[in-house]
Amino acid sequence: MQAHPVPTWQTNGRVNVIVVSGHTAYVGGQFTALRPAGAAAGSGEVTRNHAAAVNLTTGALLPWNPNVNNTVRAIQVVKSTVYLGGVFTQVGGASHLRIAAVNATTGAPLTGFKASASGEVFGLASSAGSLFLGGGFGTVDGQTRANMAVVSSTTGALLPWSPSVNGEVRSIRLLGYPRMVIGGSFTSINGASANHIGALDGDTGKSLPWKDHTTYNVIGLASDANGVYVAGAGGGGNFAAFDPKTGAQKWLGGTNGNVQAIAVVGGEVYVGGHFHVYCGPQHGQHTCTTQVPRDKLLSVDEGTGNLTGWDPSANSALGVFALRGVGPSGDVLAGGDFTSIGQRKQQGYAQFTP
């Protein structure tokens, strides 16, 4: 992977989530405008409140403009619809409480989708007409749901599926429906101990076997056919690989600050956060005994967890909050608080190519 990002539009604030559909990257976060590559802060800005879309091939800013009134945390694309989750209460000037559906080309809200959540929505996943929500909420559509729910992807109507999770769900990954894995700050699922990671049946809501758990809160998940990859906090920062079928931990790595984002593509796992050094194949520490400089970004071999030479570096106190691997091209997209990344002046959003 190149250490320098290619020219692309940049945001004027934090990017929390990046999702790719075809040649389009949808980004969400805490920004209010985008500007061209190389443009100084405040110049050439085009208004995009908390959500925007960029063409990955040309680098062009697209007309997609949902106009969201507060932070976007989650995005899910299903054909011609984009679902948004976060802390917002309005999309396109209309009331949409923390969950909304918009047109994938224009960003106009779909008025027939009427789901709402009582608290923040962090994770979204979809399958066969159902939209799964994870977050820190107690009700969805006015009915009790403990941090997870499923609604109709067409109408937003609440469906009966109702697992009980005793803390925030930060991420959801489908591992071949109906099996899904969830990560967050919870310690139990359906009344049984399940520290921070576990598996569920998407049809019944029942818990499925998952061998190993984490001592730290899970902030993000990535997955492919070979593994489930965890970004986590705790004692510095942590990242790890799990077998997707058994839930057995395969390897782990540590940093000296939270790991806030993770992605997998091309046989490598990409890790982002607010760390300054890699601590080795061990749990994270605030002061590492073995230090390898890696400022906010690193990558490891997917099979072994061994550190690679990729070292682009990013600035800012809190660093990287979003990573996405693009399967066909092998690109890696990064989002966060940075104003410089890979030795380039580039704020909020960056695209690395192989």
Question: Which keywords apply here?
Answer:
single chain; 354 residues; mainly beta; Methylamine Dehydrogenase, Chain H; six-stranded antiparallel β-sheet; four-stranded antiparallel β-sheet; globular
Give a description of the structure.
The chain has 354 residues and is mostly beta strands. The chain has a domain at 207-341: Methylamine Dehydrogenase, Chain H, CATH 2.130.10. 0% of the residues lie in helices and 46% in strands. The chain has no helices and 36 strands. It has strands spanning 10-11, 15-21, 24-29, 33-35, 46-47, 51-55, 72-78, 81-86, 90-91, 94-95, 99-103, 120-127, 130-136, 139-140, 143-144, 148-152, 169-174, 179-184, 188-189, 192-193, 197-201, 207-208, 218-224, 227-232, 237-242, 249-255, 259-265, 268-273, 277-280, 292-293, 297-301, 320-325, 332-336, 340-341, 344-345, 349-352. The radius of gyration is 19 Å and the shape is globular. The chain starts with 9 loop residues before the first strand and ends with a strand. The mean pLDDT is 97.
